[in-house]
Automatic annotation (TrEMBL), chains A, B:
Alphabetized SUPFAM superfamilies for the sequence: Acyl-CoA dehydrogenase C-terminal domain-like (SSF47203), Acyl-CoA dehydrogenase NM domain-like (SSF56645)
This protein's name: Acyl-CoA dehydrogenase
The family this protein is said to belong to: Belongs to the acyl-CoA dehydrogenase family.
Residues of the Acetyl-CoA dehydrogenase-like C-terminal domain: 486-609
Span of domain Acyl-CoA dehydrogenase/oxidase N-terminal: 35-145
Pfam families: Acyl-CoA_dh_1, Acyl-CoA_dh_C, Acyl-CoA_dh_N
Segments forming domain Acyl-CoA dehydrogenase/oxidase C-terminal: 354-468
Length: 613, 613
């Protein structure tokens, strides 16, 4: 099935997103308006993004000492995306948005990720940045910065990491000092001068828009001039590349933000990734060195503000990984249907006098395609489920909203990590289906694989997600989040037990869930984080597979029910059931293997001496 | 441990290769001569290969319409390699060789794979090609072609695949027709004219040597002008790029072999990979179109001749994959020791006022390093074990030689496939250890990962290896090969049972072996190949993990014994024991998960309808 067909099935048949129109915020929406957005994005992605996906990989951004250049086609795609209104799709009508549910917005945005994840400057970053300001900025900051980002006039970044501090944000050393005696009286917010280096900044420098808005994490020194250790000392600032007035018009002053260099990457090459120097004096502004920035929220609350957006950012990363996987699935499915090679395996072997068959008829090629389908569609269902939870959190009844928020907390590490690992593996299988051709740059699959390798790294590495899950999420509120998730999983299992075709999977999922529960307790049995967390990544993997098995079983219940409806697309539904079966037969059994070291608090890695390597 | 330290341990302490000097063929060798070869290769690889590994990736071969250009440094490396004598290292003294044992030759050659797998035109291909002629060529063919390849005057290729026939060699359509009435009287061998296209030919065109020798698989049409279907119709020919006389001197005639184009690959970019047109008339020779080729061996025996070299070629691929993994392990170990980030996980969490620690002190980074060590050193031990079997096959007493040959047949699919999959995974972990830096081209690990992705494809894909293992090897001779392997594994288990530290692993290996045995029987219970082989790849994976667990247990027995010897390098030995423990705790449990679908003859993939995808 194409992505569109699968998305339609998941949105309408499984998640029933049409029912959202019963909520005041979405009252003007219905299936037609949702479909119109999906149609528009599908077409725009096909017209402007897919044709240049290889081009942006080949013609990397380059810096002439002054400006960063990207191919003109990428600029055109960025412009078309901004003009489509998708940057503000989920926003209020009054700020120019469409009040689209998050789940529909993400499903629609996914077309762009599939067509060209590095094309057009990654609109999601600008939306996310503007969302952050909508939540934590002052009224004027929202007006001047966020609205112009939603309108596509300004593009956004996220400036967290520094060359010496990636996973460990508590160690950032970018300093922010008050700018003049009147620093507290600037209408754009308390005004500071920032000095420091920010690393891995996507879209840190380009000519795609009139201005670039950098939200920057920095520390305000104490009275002794020292930085406060840890994350408590971190504040959030808006640092525009070009200064603006209170009407959002450029003042003509260039801020002291300079490109130190471009990172040359394995993939995602369409997006310039930069090292930025803030306040080194390359562009002195208003008479002195130091990048001018405006405080957002209160001092010391920078990380809290930034993490406000983290759940959605991590779902977006997971969905991007998923769509790269999906792109490879579609490409390899097409190849497998059209490439003749080999002959059927009959009881007496093969008959060389017979014509060759398309490789899709070989069981192992089907295995590779079915694994891709199972991983990518399973991941997609999880991402859309999470996006639906975001809508619930924002528009549901108070109890439902609170539950949705808690479930989201639980699922976010999985939504980020699982597709990053398994849709990457799907991309590897897409190469394998192509044989030698897949290893060449004449086919798109090698690029998907390279692009996707980023997703286990950025927005919190696999290791960080694992610590978040086992170290924080499953123990928060005395384990209430885990209990809530388990109750949702058990509800699906109970429904499955009443469906003969799926009851067996219900039992297997129940067993896996029980194993996860036991391993969680065993990991924390000594109460020592060092012991509990030593095998956090295998725990994350087992937990992720259990979650995806649950999602698949829930989707399969929907597909099984659909089979008896008139007008059903039987092949599509059978495909969902087969993909579910594949996951339970081929993948779920790995859960026990991963949990062994967790449940025994195995100390092989923890006690490994540096000298023994 | 560096590769050299590990290789020394495996060669001398584990495999006792010094004892080979008791055999007539190796009588002039001893540890000093072996070490001298290892030293020489280590130095040459460090001097000429490592420094240009990134260069050959960046400056891909290009074709000016006449010649293929590669960087001068790569040409120099090729020349230095040829001059080192390594091309003929394992050959008889009388043909200019060193009569080096295969196991030492492979361990020495591994330095080049680790330093720059795409540098210098892949000498292994030339050696392998010449070995083929030594085994199947006429005396003059050996003299004219093979000897000049060993000397580095000529370079070699292997021309098997065609654009429409990769895995399915029975479908090649390159034709060979007798060249003139006197075709059988050419001193260089029966002379034919070849016409057809050969795809994926490494080093198919270059200027690294005086001439290129192509061994080409082609079909001689029957009296009706038709090609014989299947592999029975395949013959082997030597097709030199430039014709030579019976003294091996160039005659000045260019043969009708033309470069149709270069393949642009994801990795292995230093090696020109080509599509060659044979006999299309671009370079008419001796008055007509058609590439002149000389039959090797008998008509119809081409594939048999070619497969004579396949075991060694597949061990070489496995070793290449291993060394790419090892290169990533060394790089990420170095990075992890030197990159500060984060703080220890104390009972009360982390203390941000403390200085940061090198990331190697985090349990999850140790996990990623230990996984690499466990996979790469385990794979290395298997490859050297297999190479030692080659020596046994060639120089052992008749019974030992026969057993070695049978064990090699059993182990070859694993030696080829296991490192291709798991040392690639190791490369992914090497990237992950580096974080964002690993995703840039400023560090070598992303290239290792790209390079290594080829190894699951060429020399028989994963799927082909799996069919070879479950479809042929485990059932050959009524299962004698499997029994022999099981008896070797059981011997190791028995020794482990007498060592308290390792007895537990012995039990676990015994259980895994029993599961493999049961699954093998269950797969074939209906006798229907279609059912038995539907899950051949999961079987291959489970079998591979069981073999590596056996190898690790055997290595661990050696390390455990070494601990009590005076002067032992305790850290190195503890490291081997920890890597063994890692494999048993983290990896071996996956065997059960893979075998489930095999033992149940699960039909999910086999019965998946094309319309359901």
């Amino acid at each position: 099935m194409s992505y569109r067909q699968t998305a339609d099935f998941l949105l309408y048949d499984w998640l029933h997103v049409e029912t959202l129109q019963q909520r005041a915020r979405f009252a003007e929406h219905n299936r037609e308006t949702f479909d119109a957005v999906l149609d528009m994005c599908e077409k725009l992605a096909a017209d402007k993004f897919a044709p240049v996906n290889r081009l942006v990989d080949t013609e990397e951004p380059w810096f002439d000492g002054e400006k960063v250049h990207v191919p003109e086609a990428s600029v055109a795609a960025a412009r078309a995306y901004a003009e489509s209104g998708m940057l503000a799709a989920a926003q209020d009508y009054e700020v120019g948005g469409m009040q689209l549910p998050c789940v529909v917005e993400m499903a629609a945005h996914a077309f762009f990720s599939k067509a060209g994840i590095g094309v057009g400057g990654a609109g999601m970053l600008t939306s996310g940045n503007a969302n952050l300001l909508m939540a934590h900025g002052s009224e004027l900051q929202r007006e001047v910065f966020a609205k112009n980002e939603f309108a596509g006039r300004f593009f956004g970044t996220m400036c967290l990491s520094e060359p010496q501090a990636g996973s460990s944000l508590s160690d950032i050393v970018t300093r922010a000092t008050p700018d003049g005696d009147d620093f507290e009286r600037d209408p754009l917010g308390p005004r500071y001068r920032l000095r420091g280096n920010k690393m891995w900044i996507s879209n840190g420098e380009h000519e795609l828009a009139e201005n670039i808005v950098h939200p920057v994490l920095a520390k305000i020194p104490g009275p002794d001039g020292k930085l406060v250790p840890g994350t408590r000392g971190i504040s959030l600032f808006i640092v525009p590349k070009k200064l603006v007035d209170t009407d959002g018009q450029l003042t003509g002053e260039r801020n002291d933000v300079a490109l130190a260099g471009l990172n040359h990457k394995l993939g995602y090459r369409g997006i310039p990734n930069t090292l930025l120097n803030f306040g080194e004096g390359k562009y002195p502004v208003r008479g002195s060195a130091g990048a001018i920035g405006y405080l957002v929220g209160k001092p010391g609350e920078g990380l809290r503000c930034m993490f406000h957006m983290m759940n959605e950012a991590r779902i977006a990363v997971g969905l991007g990984a998923t769509m790269l996987g999906y792109a490879g699935y579609e490409a390899s499915l097409d190849y497998a249907k059209n490439r003749p090679q080999g002959r059927p395996m009959g009881p007496g072997g093969k008959d060389a006098t017979q014509p060759q068959i398309p490789i899709i008829r070989h069981a192992d090629v089907r295995r590779m395609l079915l694994a891709q389908k199972s991983w990518c569609e399973g991941a997609l269902a999880l991402e859309l489920y999470c996006a639906r939870l975001v809508d619930e959190q924002h528009t549901g009844a108070p109890d439902d909203a609170a539950q949705a928020a808690m479930l989201l907390e639980m699922l976010t590490p999985i939504a980020k990590s699982w597709p990053s690992e398994w849709c990457l593996e799907a991309n590897s299988l897409a190469i394998q289906v192509h044989g030698g051709y897949g290893y060449t740059r004449d086919f798109p699959v090698e690029q998907y694989w390279r692009d996707n390798r980023l997703n286990m790294i950025h927005e919190g590495t696999h290791g960080i997600q694992a610590l978040d899950l086992l170290g924080r999420k499953v123990v928060m509120d005395g384990g209430k989040g885990l209990q809530l998730l388990a109750s949702r999983i058990n509800a699906t299992i109970e429904r499955a037990m009443r469906v003969p075709e799926l009851a067996g999977f219900g039992n297997e999922l129940a067993a896996a869930l029980a194993e996860v529960g036991r391993a969680t307790k065993a990991a924390w049995a000594t109460g020592n984080p060092e012991e509990a967390l030593a095998n956090a990544v295998p725990y994350l993997q087992a937990f992720g597979h259990t979650v995806i098995a649950w999602i698949w079983l829930d989707v399969a219940l929907c597909a099984q029910a659909g089979l008896s409806q008139s007008g059903a697309d039987e092949a599509a539904l059978r495909g969902k059931l087969a993909a579910c079966r594949f996951f339970f037969r081929h993948d779920l059994p790995k859960v026990a293997a991963w949990l062994r070291v967790v449940a025994s608090r195995d100390d092989t890695c923890r006690t490994m001496d540096e000298a023994w390597f």
